[in-house]
Amino acid sequence: MRKFNQNDIFSCDTMVALGNCTKSGNIIFAKNSDRPLLEAQPLVEYEAADYKEGEMVQCTYISIPQVPHTYKVLGSKPHWIWGFEHGMNEHHVVIGNEAVWSVEEEETENGLLGMDLLRLGLERGKTAYEAMHVIISLLETYGQGGSAAEHSDFRYHNAFLIADPNEAWVVDTVNRRYVARRVKDVCGISNCYSTGEVWDEGSPDIKEHAYEMGYADPRNEEPFHFARVYGLMGAKHRAAYPRFRRLNQILQEKKGEIDVDTMEAILRDHYEGELIEPRFSPADGLLVSICMHNIDEASSVTAAGAVVEIPREGNLTFRGCMSRPCCSVFLPYSIEEPLPKKVSYAKGFFEQDSFWWKMERLTDEIEIDYPRNKKVWEVIQKELQDKMNQIENPDAETMEKCVQEVEKAVDSVYEKLVALNISTSQIQRKQLINRKKEKAKY
Fold first, then answer.
1. For residue 92, pLDDT beyond 50
2. Pairing of β 152-153 and β 2-3
């Protein structure tokens, strides 16, 4: 197993807009899940279930006591992990998590991954507040530990963004301690602590522990600032903080007019219109943007994204994309109906029956010469996206048809790009993609 390098760039971005900032008056949640290369991320669902006293649930690394009843959940999960990167439950609780790094080292013993905690929160929490305290209780009891990457020793602390139809909370954790704050309007979190001087709940010794460990000086007259005290300033922070600022900049600018289209556009963002907009293409790997393209074979890429509008009444639609959002299409899904098999199937290598791998393969071909190849796909992509965004509360047949329609377009454009990519001016990118193709067994 490769040892994790502190300079390796891994990322995620999660955001929420409360009803006082959206067009519809509903809370809207969104997340990009960024993972190491070749970590396929299917969309899965698990039915509600009842359990007998004494039963255990096997999470990624450890088993813990099961509860008498778990709620139905739908989530996006790395293919080898028990938990979710983001997901929702039958009571319309939606959660996303972020890797964060602290001056305090991670626990070395295996515990619950942040993704395990997220799924457990959804399975056991009927509201955002209840799910938050499920996560906190489990965190305090079992800790967060174990490698979160399939082929490297990759450990971190977690931050969570938890929403339901009425409210949203941010939880920043450091091993078995935490602080939590209620969201007031819009909020984006990334791979850096975001809680400052004020929080609504937290571990009772969060300040005292920092003083005892020497992270902060109790004689300092400045207010205690959680992110500054506990946050690790390094390569990871330098990669995360610009995205964190960019997320919140756009959310603030769009307050009052935010809708599903707005959130999808943010998840596709590469600093368009800004001074640091990529000179040639996001696939050049020079910038770490919200829509994440890998810099090298050790860094991560966006593997899946989601946008969920959470109404106070009626069913909601989970809009999920696979692979990089700028090259993908957000499709509508419902927790009320069985998911198409193709979206729920993915392993660590390409297979024709996996919708995730079809999208990833297309993205790879686009990235070989992004400025040229994106033009071949983007008109079709936009037409498909506009059509998909009109669909609410899809039944099983509609979801299946949506997948089939997008897959047909993806296969057609992929064949065109393979022919185009015989020649390209971006030789280094082509070489990187070709190495990936060998590993992915395209």
1. yes
2. parallel
Is this prediction's pTM over 0.85? yes
Q: How far apart are CA 406 and CA 43, in angstroms?
A: 16
Q: Are 48 and 74 in contact (CB under 8 A)?
A: no
Q: How many CB atoms lie within 10 A of CB 404?
A: 13
Which parts of 187-326 fold into alpha helices (H)? 206-213, 226-230, 235-253, 260-267
* Spatial contact of 398 and 390, defined as CB atoms under 8 Å apart: no
Crossing angle of helices 235-253 and 260-267, rounded to 10°: 150
Type and span of the H or E element at 96: strand 94-100
User: Per the structure block, which two tokens stand in for 164?
Assistant: 């339901």
- Closest to 310 measured CA to CA, from 128, 60, 62, 120: 128
Q: What is the largest CA-CA distance in the chain?
A: 67
- pLDDT tens figures, 124-150: 999 999 999 999 999 999 999 998 888
Half-sphere exposure (Cβ direction) of 51: Cα atoms closer than 13 Å: 16
**Mind listing the pLDDT tens digit for each residue in 356-374?**
999 999 999 999 999 999 9
- For 30, the enclosing helix (H) or strand (E) is strand 27-36
Helix (H, G, I), strand (E, B) or coil at 33: strand
Under CATH, what is the fold of the domain 2-337?
Answer: Penicillin V Acylase; Chain A (3.60.60)
Name the DSSP letter for residue 224.
Answer: P
Cβ pair 92, 310 in contact under 8 A: yes
Cα 257 vs. chain centroid, distance in angstroms? 23
Quick one: pLDDT at residue 2? 47
Where are the chain's structural domains?
2-337
**Residue among 12, 21, 291, 321 flagged as catalytic:** 12
HSE of 165 in the Cβ direction (CA atoms, 13 Å)? 14
**Number of residues in the chain:** 442
List the 27-36 sheet strands across, edge first.
186-189, 12-17, 27-36, 300-310, 318-322, 331-333
Structure tokens at 23: 């067009």
| 12 counts as catalytic | yes
